[in-house]
Records
---
Amino acid sequence: MSTPSAPFTELVNLASRLLGAGVVGTNEDTFADAENLLVAKPAEFRAHTFGHKGQIMDGWESRRRRGACAEQPHPTDEDHDWAIVRLGAAGVIRGVVVDTAHFTGNYPETGSVQGASIPGHPSPAEVEAAEWTDLVPRTALRGNTAHEFAVDNETRFTHVRLNIWPDGGVARLRVHGEVRPDPRELDGLSFDLAAQEYGGVAEAASDRYFSSPHNLNAPGRATVMGEGWETRRRRDKANDWVQIALAGGGEVLAAEVDTTHFVANAPGWADLVGYDAGAGGDPSADPDGWFELLPRTRLQPDTRHRFRLNADRPATHVRINVYPDGGLARLRLTGRLTEAGRAALALRWFNALPAAEADAALAEAGLTAAEATALTAARPLADAAATTAAVAALQPTDGPDGEHTSRRRAAIWRLLGI
């Protein structure tokens, strides 16, 4: 009997190559390239398949470590190998999977995972020199096993580092979590509000028998039918659906409903409905709160359908209903954040920043260094009211207090939209 996966494995893989993840450094991968850690498909093994460096392994494998001399032939307890991965999307990590599939006589004895937040586009040397935080402490590993480790840390990370002692092979590394985009990069833009890279999540679905609803808002185009979302055949009079939490509350201006590769199993029709949870509503418990974005519309097989939508109401969630069943390759929802949506997204981002980055962002927006440090220390900020109260509690440093209040409010508005 197989062991059920941890709940965090249903979250987005932040280390996905599709999102833009990459290996930026490793100290050793003589036997097998560290880039294999990020391959999307499960690791494979073909016995007695040898290259000029030995058995070809579908994973990352370092050479066997040796000691310093004949009198000390064994590596020390601290000798280890490592690989650093730039996440495809920065976010809060909820769990990692360290998979030693097919490594049986050559797996590491122990391993650990660390995280770092490095703004901008750092060089490999700058990444190596970063301050690293333990996410998974050094722990024993087994061969041919997918090790699932939950992570309890609310910080936004951009990179992870996999350490193995003393050497050996790991087939795959998955880093599951919640995307926390920098709101300053989205200001004034229309973008795909449903996209994983900006924090959109397929959070519920009626059916995932053949493939995952997370494929609907994955990056890029589906290259085969299996990279979309497909349901089993219905034998009742109901319909199938997927509910997506958008990156933030926004005006959904247009949709692309893509049935590419679905020829004999495309839905016959689809509609789109929206829900605004900005006032604290719950879309799963409020069936009357949904409103129409696109009426039930006929679909064609193997076709990218584009629709302009009725955007007179903001939405935080969108549900696509397909009739009666079938499969979709992708769903794109082009729109722009509302002021409230941008503020909520920005607050989630700000609360997750490392303290030094939060201080820098506040100072760049217009607070003094002392004010920035004080406001960062007041996190987490629950909402606009809590943020306003924290700003009001800052002590004046110079000039009339009214000037302080006005300047601070302007700075917080520039950064958080609050």
---
Amino acid sequence: MAEDELGGELRTANSSDRAVSSGAQDPNVETFENPGMPDHHERVTDTNPQKAKNTERVVTALFWVSLAFTIFAIAAYFVWPINREDITSVRWNSMFVGLGIAFGMLTLGTGAVAWAKYLMKDEEQVEARHKTGASPATAKRVSEVFKQADEESGFTRRKMLRNSLIGAALALPLPGIVLLRDLYNGNNENPVKLMHQTMWDKGVRLVRDPSGTPIKASEVTIGSAFHVIPEGLNELEHGKLDEKAKAVVLLMRLPEDRLKEQEDRKSWSYHGIVAYSKVCTHVGCPVALYEQQTHHLLCPCHQSQFDVTEHCKVIFGPAGRPLPQLPITVDNDGYLVAQSDFHEPVGPTFWERRNDYV
């Protein structure tokens, strides 16, 4: 009896499967009708020509305002210049240039969005998916679509609107071009030679930054690190920041048995005290993080690491060469002094790609 019931259930299940596979509708399955496209609601600018004209004027005004802010950003770069002797002047320059660029982009974007939202046609469309090809019929249809889009957007027809958009968009990159022009100074045609010469010279004392206090060798203990500048830098009236950017040095003392010095450089250190440029050889960031246990220097910008025990060779990161070493000794009073200037250009490696600095 049980086998008959089981066989009946199997026959019922098979019948249901055949009904589904043959397309029969299961009365227990809920069906849905295609709702179709929603009703199109016309905008005020679609029904009222005067409103459309006023909107066009507003959008055009936004584009002209964008152009005005772009010009303001360029003018601000010259009206509020950066004073090398007063670093706080950067604030005003950055603020007004930034405001000009920001509002130029904001008004340009607002105008473009308003044009699309209120003036371009917004009728709902359904486009069936089909294979695309490069047949003549397809090319013809693409041309028709572009013409239709041009007609619906009013790009050709609304000349004042179009011209103001083009003017604002073309002017937008100009502040960047004006700012980037200062990356090259025509008066310094030989940057490698410029970076090769600093205030360091024979007998120039190493002093603390920023106080200018001379440093005795006995004050530099193992594991300590001093931020150092050349004596006389603080007394400069002009070019102080430029000279400091090239001459800043990090002074450290290591156990003498940890130093692995080359024969021709053993005289550059003094009883384990070594001095290296703080300017990273990657892009010029300050290398100011010293790990006294590993004797590694770390650049915080792009994580380049230098081994102080081996003439600050690069052990990690994108830096292209070791940090330049400043040869040092002591004077008759026990103060640390430089033996000479750096023997190579300081800063990013790309300065050395010019071979005519000698």
---
Amino acid sequence: MKNLLRNRRIEKKLKTKDVAQALGIDQALISKFENGTRKPTKEHLFKLAEILDIAYETLLVAWLKDKIYAEIGTDQFVYEAILQVKEEMAFYASFKRAPLSKKLERILKEIDTFKNELNQFRKYDSFRITQALELEYTFESNKIEGNTLTLKETDLIVNEGLTISGKSMREHLEAINHQEAIAYIKELMDKNTAINEREILCIHNLILRGIYPEDAGKYRKVQVMIKGSSHMPPQPFLVAKEMEELFIWYQTNKNNLHPVILAAEMHERLVTIHPFIDGNGRTSRLLMNLILLQHGYVIANIKGTHESRMSYYNALEACQVENNKEHFLLLIAQTEKECLERYLSIIKPN
């Protein structure tokens, strides 16, 4: 691994002090990582992968290989022992994640059929269609959180710059901010930017800008409770660590899960951590839709009606309290399927 770190740093034209500053550690430690006299921690690996633009899995495998070699060396029975460990790990890995239900697998297949069909008709897409659907997403996502603006009022605020009599400044800002956050995740998609802590904080900063400026783009420093839920989010001093683990989970699983499942999981995991004072739901849904857009799907727009909102909250509650993700995964998959079908119905020639 030492050669991998050094060679990649040189390719990126970075000095050891640059990497040290990004990691928040002493420069001498970087030199020791590169000459093999010290091993980075598992937490360092994730940040090194970001800084040096190396796949996290590649670094993790190299790190584990060095760790195993340092522990057991070249004993004559090492190879046989490793083979037995491999067999046992494969056996237990099959129990780590419950298989997807047949219903969920069926919906995922239907989603991919619609996506493949949509790809054939992308040339008929237009800015006007995209603009209208994104406005609906802003309207519905804010409505879930209690915003009382109508779709038309949202349009007048966002696209005409008008002020709606009788509506609060916060509701106006929520509409404007969310629309700007959509533009930001589309920019991240276009640039193929990696999903990391910085981007999540930037999304959240846009959501709360001008509403809670002191909390925008910052993790909460107080304990919170979720109104109407029995789930208790982690204490504030645990938030940064839980977020770090979230990104490690993402890097480990991003190539192993269906994109719709990956997007739904990241949504649920982020909103369960509840890292912010406010704006957790909107930020989590934007993260979910960033992942969907990156993989060529369309925005999954969860409706803000009472019935839809309660189904959404109940599905999240089942994840957080009962550790049952089936209902939530089904809800997101069904939403994506319906949004794909609608998109097709709009742009597909008669």
---
Amino acid sequence: MATLSFELQHKDQKSNARAGVITTDHGEIQTPIFMPVGTVGSVKGVSQQLLQSDVKAQIILGNTYHLYLRPGTDVLEKAGGLHQFNHWDKPILTDSGGYQVFSLAGTRKIKEEGVTFQSHIDGSKHLFTPEKVMDIQRSIGGDIIMAFDECPPGGSDYGYAHKSMELTHRWLDRCFTQFNATPDKYGYTQNLFPIVQGGTFKDLRKQSCEYIASKDAPGNAIGGLSVGEPEPVMYEICDWCCQHLPQQKPRYLMGVGTPWNILECIGLGIDMFDCVMPTRNGRNAMLFTTQGVINIDNKKWEFDFSPIDEALPCEMSQYYSKSYLRHLFKAKELLALTIASVHNLSFYLWLVGEARKHIVTGDYASWKEEMVLKLKTRL
């Protein structure tokens, strides 16, 4: 068993983009990387076999809030952890549930002890404390587990963002105390990542980065972005945080975002991304392709028998036609959701893989500018 390590292999000369390798007990992750979101232990509509064969996923996510409510830690522990339960033998990252609690604004109550909230399933009341969240994530068994933080809403004023950041830091201390006091359950090393907060205020973000960096964790995350602030503000704060987080540790930007968001933030120095967008938008007939964005519902695709995306090295994207996929959506056939989800996820993994190639060859900045314009094209 070994603590997660990060080898920084290449840096782009005209941006802050970087390529590296994260090593965990469940295998290596080449960065920059996109991580498909498997909220309840599965990526919606996509089997683990397809995640490996078509999507080429290197790491997936699970969510503490959802897995705690269902199936529960008793089931997960008896199964031997999430890796055994869902038969995924590569790395897993578990979110702390902080964002899900944030999204339950109508039923949650935040206090020093933790957060009380009502289950979205049956309305039952629960309390998440930093200690409990660490224990739940120990039971789930992710290779990377996230600290319990408070995610302030977009547009929060300075006073709220400051108070929230300080609470997140106090909770982080409690997370590390509990994490260090409890052993790994399943014979491999788990790694705790802290989360930078501070809203859109640079002095708070700098203070939070410095506090998080002082913990010397194996990696660090940036939270509280893509929660309603304008894109230029997101990029500005992301850039600022990257300037104040350790160079030798992987940086994870939580919950971001569109393909162009990801390319811009790679250029700022981010290594890890996750977002529900590829599967959520796919289920709603929006496809991200190597040539731009497609709404496959549109009538213009009715007689288009060309592959969904001939340039994408994904079997489903080359096997099925645009016309056929449109037909499946119109017929409300469940297969449409799987094809669209696999396609979009494959595209995201292809995109970060291409980004890595261009970082290594040294022309990332110019390639990124051309690619962002292409990706925003509505076909």
